[in-house]
Protein: tRNA modification GTPase MnmE
Organism: Helicovermis profundi
Amino acid sequence: MNFDTITAISTAQAEGAIGIIRISGKNAINISREIFRSKTNKSIDFENKKLTYGYIYDEAIIIDEVLVAAMYAPNSYTCEDIVEINCHGGIVPLKRILKLVLKKGARMAEPGEFTKRAFLNGRLDLSQAESVMDLINAKTNKSFDLALEQLGGSLSEDINLMRKNIEELMAQIAVSIDYPEEDIEEITYGEIINKLKLLFDKVIDLANSGEKGKIFRDGLSTVIIGKPNVGKSSLMNVLLKESRAIVTDVPGTTRDIIEEYLNIEGIPLKIVDTAGIRDTDDIVEKIGVEKSKEFFNKADLVIFVLNSSEKLSDEDREIMKYIVDKKAIVIINKTDLKQAIEEDEINNTLHDKIIIKTSITNKFGIDKLEKEIYNMIIGGTIKENESKLVSNTRHINALEKASNSLKEAIQATKDRMPYDFIEVDIKNAYNYLGEITGETVETDIVKKIFSNFCLGK
Ligand code: GDP
Ligand code: ZN
């Protein structure tokens, strides 16, 4: 397709050694030729995918010393001519060059527009394009690897194969509808059911992998609760392996809610240290009872910390009641001190919870905690093809809709409904699967997906 020429700063908008301005479209090469010359003001030719050294000129004035890479269509990220100008990483040279490129006729790119062009030009399908954003946002190595797998087309392959199988099935059904009297091999209800069941199983497998996939992609929101001074901030710090939250001997000093990402065996835990019940009261004051309830209830995981050197207090008992029906792990901390806590009572009240004894000071029990969190969330064994986890909610929803349509098609076939009736459900499943790769997706959804991208990608 022939689009206009777009440009953007593609590196992070912060100081760095190098900044990159990207230009894509039919005038990318011409614009670059006009502004890029040698030190003696001679024009320079670009070699495909090679860095060329020179200067950016605004008329006769040198703006910056740069390296320029040209990538000719169709073998570029967008399938169009792309030029990337590597300049000094400050905001001044970046903005100057960007302004110059705009003056020469390029248009400011929308967020994600380069990747959108890669999609519209057929280089990436929609699920692959989406994985580009997942790569950028990945919180752990594991999340990154999953996104890389998806960018490589592993999900697309599965989807395309299933859609091909559906096409074949639909063709067989169509023949049976069109030529019912004639002497051709008609597909039987039994055969349709068998084929649909195979497809249904595959779709369900993929949809089910979404629960884990989403955890690796989006992380788990985790709240650490417990009275002041039991060791919540200390715990967060050991887990972070560097001091971010303020650790103090004065009860209730960690005042603000701190949000950090932890990496527990590849699972990103978005962790919130509430600084104890006392600060929880502050939260209530600040954001209101309903909102704060929402805040706790929204947590995917609660880590409840107790001080084993003190007897249980009313506050502890209140929290115990609260977490009974939540996904929670109990930590009995400060085991290096003399024990006073009523362990039996804890075991009785929270009998189905994982209870771990720790001494954070001595780094005792931390490994066990990490393992237990992982097992609890991911559930013991992990399958071989774990890299095929579906992680994007949009994909999971589409798979669920496809599985429902297949289920209806199977039921209709069992009920010996007319073939053209069954065909409708099968066609629906086909279209839902196509939403994942972007084959059958509506343009406003595509627009929405790319609008979430960062500028210059
Ligand atoms: P928070 O108020 O729950 O966040 O508690 P902090 O993490 O601020 O810890 C309160 C105090 O307990 C600090 O002085 C910590 O050093 C100390 N502490 C934390 N864990 C342990 C532990 O396992 N053993 C002992 N003896 N002290 C600990
Ligand atoms: Zn604290």
Observations:
- Residues 232-233, 254, 273, 275 surround zinc ion (ligand 2) (CB under 6 Å).
